[in-house]
Design goal:
heterodimer; A: alpha/beta; four-stranded parallel beta sheet; 14 helices; about 50% helix; B: alpha/beta; six-stranded parallel beta sheet; four-stranded mixed beta sheet; globular
Amino acid sequence: MPRVGLFVPCYVDQLYPQVAMATLELLERYGCEVEFPPAQTCCGQPMANTGCTNDAKPLAEKFLSIFQDYEYVVCPSGSCTAMVTHHYEELLHGNPAYESLRKKTFELCEFLVDVLKIEKVEGRFPYRVGLHNSCHGLRELRLGSGSERMIPAFNKAGQLLSGLEGIELVPLKRPDECCGFGGTFAVAEEAVSCMMGLDRIHDHEQAGAEVMTAGDMSCLMHMYGLIHRQKKPIQVMHVAEILAGRQPTASTTNGK
Amino acid sequence: MESDAVTQTLTHHEHPENATAFVANDARAHWHDQSLWFVRSKRDKAAATLPEWEELRARASAIKQHTMSRLGDYLEQFERNATKLGAIVHWARTPAEHNQIVLSILQQHGVKKLVKSKSMLTEECHLNPFLERNGIEVTDTDLGEWIVQLLGQPPSHIVMPAIHIKREEIGELFHKHIGTEKGATDPPYLVDAARDELRRKFVQADAGITGVNFAIAETGGFVVCTNEGNADLGVSLPKLHIACMGIEKLIPRAADLGVFLRLLARSATGQPITTYSSHFHGPLAGGELHIVLVDDGRSEILGSPEFRRSLNCIRCGACMNTCPVYRRSGGHSYETTVPGPIGSILAPSRDAKAHKSLPFACSLCGSCSDVCPVKIDLHTQLLTWRREIAVRGLLPWRKRLSMKFARILLGNTWLFTTAGRIGRWLLPKLPRFLVYNRLNPWGKQRELPPMPKQSFRELYRQRKRS
């Protein structure tokens, strides 16, 4: 039985508990022994992406001390996972414990597909779904092939979702354009950020999506904010919620 | 420095201000985004026709890295071989030196009028205004560049300099400058009119200036890629040819050209190859060929392990076409000669303070790194620049302070959970104007997420108990 330390992004812990709960249930369904170490807070990405390496470093050290003894570390966010696997090197280099942490830290879909070798998720989700490919998951973790690279197409979240009964993944005009969240970018470049978000939403709308899903709740938080302000009918759900069998009721998604 | 006088007369704005102004015209911003996305899509189709695309990128990247690792040797080899072919090679450390060298050559030949094909380097050096101040008429012969020249604007894109200008505006511009019919917007008609006018300029020119796409150390020759044939014509009619190039344009062997020419046009415009790939080996019979090699900060970039790979750039513009921020903020919002992702790395290398907002004009989506034909790790370098800007104390105080605050709040589990609990309880109780006001840029166009009663850690604790 794989022993998993559940790494929950700080804003998911506080604002989207249902996403972390779905992740926990999903991992348990596939036989993992999951523990949420309560000392965890934030991986330090907001500081690191602003250039404040010195402010990010103590958080990286804290993270390492909390998670280093688990067999696996799994996180329902490509972006926070990429922070640990791709950007901690700069903050923790030379630390042998980090080298081992890096190798055992996985984004949720990546863990399900590559480690647990799940081929088909049982369940039913009879909706038209638009899959938003969050950038760090796509282009840093390589959870999918990406439209830029000329390699055989694959998509780990898409592969898991398409196994659900009744689901229809709708084709987007721009399958992997950024939604414009980008952390502090969302406020520092507010105008471009919101235009990018609205463009993404329109793409899902024109494709007929009823639900927009993604591996990162941060992208969805940004797009939910735009959707809700403009009172659009499209709903947002994290991939973990759909895979765990949740259905798009207004109360779990748009908070109405 | 002489060349900077021009840029300094313009009012300087940070990228978000310029971007906000561009986005404010929603229809135009969307038109701009669509035009460039169309080019990106063409690039995808063209790249997909080559099964070895990723291999080519890797090869190109390796060749460039190798070249940069011994750039001094290759430059000297190039100089020797170019000189053997009869060219005269000049070295310029700064834009001012470059401009002075070009001017003296022109003055020695009594040049009054010259034609110039596209050269981002001469844009970087602000050569046109310098020559004009010295009484020389310069005509940019690349159609897009000529359009922006007539408008008195800098290019907004390195491959498609007038991509931000609509057909109707070109019709109006041509009506004013070359007397086309008022209201005419038909592209073939406008192009024909431009061709007539430019032909006159070609015939009258005493000298031709070109850029350089690739200079080959082993042969001393160089290649200029155009779609309009304007480089060839511009240096075939006059006897004097001046080619201006940044020192990073070098490749070791003629055999390497095959790799780069296949990548360049496909990445730039989705064409299998540029219409003209003109090879120059020495001067025309009875003519003169000058090659000006310009550093302008490149040696400094070469000396920095983090940013060295930005010198691999072959100026295809693919990173601009794919950049979701560039497409929606326009090239002029960067206030640099080279805009977009690569420009946001190159510009702070020259002046970090003036361009400190550029590395943040990026959502770190990473698309640029994946389209780049020479595999520059663009988004990683942009992130590294953010760190540099913080280290040099150039971050705005609000950003610096909020990150210090975040470090304290997020570094302590009790503080973090307590602040979360209070926030989730308080926020829904506050009157709307206290939450959504001008101090909250998030809320200008976006709602905040609904505040759940319990955090995950609270639910988890309960679940474990039961």
